[in-house]
Design brief:
Elements: H1 4-31, H2 37-64, E1 67-68, E2 72-73, E3 87-88, E4 91-95, H3 96-114, H4 124-147, H5 151-155, H6 163-181, H7 197-216, H8 224-252, H9 257-271, H10 280-304, H11 312-330, H12 343-373, H13 381-386, H14 388-393
Antiparallel strand pairs: 1-2, 3-4
Helix pairs in contact: 1-2, 1-3, 1-7, 2-3, 2-4, 3-4, 3-6, 4-6, 4-12, 6-11, 6-12, 7-8, 7-9, 8-9, 8-10, 9-10, 9-11, 10-11, 11-12
């Protein structure tokens, strides 16, 4: 029953999604100051190690194992027991182990996204503990709610590739982290500029490339749905990049490279929940709106004054929320949204987004406050001034002679 074609495509898609995490490391690494580039990249990169171990030991079972009350999976598959080369319950054409590997890459990048909110000030030891606890207590349950047979999936929530599970979830956690850690030293008092935008554009390009595996791979087959998700991903991303630089021009007078890269990521985020449910024209509207909405969310952040270092809340939290709601508006393929005769879907999308927001913010805040009271979250003042590359890792990204 295993399909060779589907298996080959999903092996490629899994590798593409894995490649997104190093791409994120480059994207974030270019946005921080040079004294923090390695520490910032390390936080994304090492998620590949930490989350992979959690996934094998118990994560996959909690996220996708037999449902317990719509809230969490049972531990039947702990240690990947019973997860082998035969087809599994989520696809009768793929080896069960391959489905698990594909979903692992989603689990890896989600806590890595949060790191942009506390860049340049969190202790590496605190980051490791937070990542373990957050992935276990927040990501695995929310993943199960939507994709693993939990209550939101049963309610009818649409999330093709992770708008709620990944982007809203991580974006809300990022807000909690920014508020609880507090501002970087010198924030709003001295210039804090990206040190290498060429690195950031390279990272954004890798994310764009890898996102085809992220979205099209979520069809779990080499079929028409995968083709649709591939195409809508491209169109929404392209439109969002253009919309963002238009907003740059309107509000700041010049289109910026950073704006183009940020807009592309915003478009990728916004189309993720609806990639396999909407058509190309709808994807243009979703992407175009995402470019403007996420741009305005950053302007709002500046007025509110919290220090989300790399704008995770605005791009992933707000972009993911718009994408989830837009799916409830524009879904027309395999499901129907408000504009296609099913207003109930928009309400279901709002319930799913609201549940993720409340749960993620609450549990993330509890984890962060506990760490703040015990091990501590932030590096010392002198270490922050010196930079995390040297103070946390004893190395530097650039040796200039």
């Amino acid at each position: 029953m295993i399909s060779a074609g589907d298996t080959a495509w999903m092996l490629v898609a899994t590798a593409l999604v894995m490649f997104m995490t190093p791409g994120l490391a480059l994207f974030y690494g270019g946005l921080v100051r040079s004294k923090n580039v390695l520490a910032t990249m390390m936080q994304s990169f090492i998620c590949l190690g930490v989350v992979s171990i959690l996934w094998v030991l118990f994560g996959y079972s909690l996220a996708f194992g037999p449902d317990i009350g719509g809230l969490i999976g049972a531990l039947d598959w702990a240690g990947l027991s019973g997860v082998g080369l035969e087809p599994g319950p989520y696809s009768d054409k793929l080896p069960h182990l391959l489905f698990s590997a594909f979903q692992l890459m989603f689990a890896v990048i989600t806590p890595a996204l949060i790191t942009g909110a506390y860049a340049e000030r969190m202790k590496f030891s605190a980051f490791l503990i937070f990542t373990i606890l957050w992935t276990t207590l927040v990501y695995f349950p929310v993943c199960h709610w939507v994709w693993g047979g939990g209550w939101l999936g049963k309610l009818g929530a649409l999330d093709f590739a992770g708008g709620t599970v990944i982007h809203i979830n991580s974006g809300v956690a990022a807000l909690a982290a920014a508020l609880i850690l507090g501002k970087r030293q010198g924030y709003k008092q001295e210039p804090i500029y990206p040190h290498n935008l060429t690195m950031t554009v390279l990272g954004a390009s890798i994310l764009w490339f890898g996102w085809f595996g992220f979205n099209a791979g979520s069809a779990l087959a080499a079929n028409g749905t995968a083709a649709l998700a591939f195409f809508t991903t491209q169109v929404a991303t392209a439109t969002a990049a253009l919309a963002w630089i238009l907003a740059d021009k309107i509000f700041h007078g010049k289109p910026t490279t950073l704006g183009a890269a940020s807009g592309a990521v915003a478009g990728l985020v916004a189309i993720t929940p609806g990639a396999g449910f909407v058509g190309p024209v709808a994807s243009i509207m979703i992407g175009g709106a995402a470019g403007f909405i996420c741009f305005l969310a950053i302007m709002l952040k500046e007025k509110l004054g919290y220090d989300d270092s790399l704008d995770v809340v605005a791009v992933h939290g707000v972009g993911g929320l718009w994408g989830a709601l837009a799916t409830g508006l524009f879904a027309s393929i395999g499901a129907q949204g408000l504009f296609f005769g099913n207003p109930k879907q928009l309400g279901i999308q709002a319930i799913a987004a609201g549940a993720a927001i409340v749960y993620s913010f609450t549990v993330s805040s509890i984890i962060l406050l506990l760490l703040k009271k015990t091990t501590g979250l932030r590096v010392g003042n002198d270490d922050e001034v010196q930079g995390l590359d040297l103070s946390q890792h004893g190395e530097t990204g650039y040796y200039l002679r």
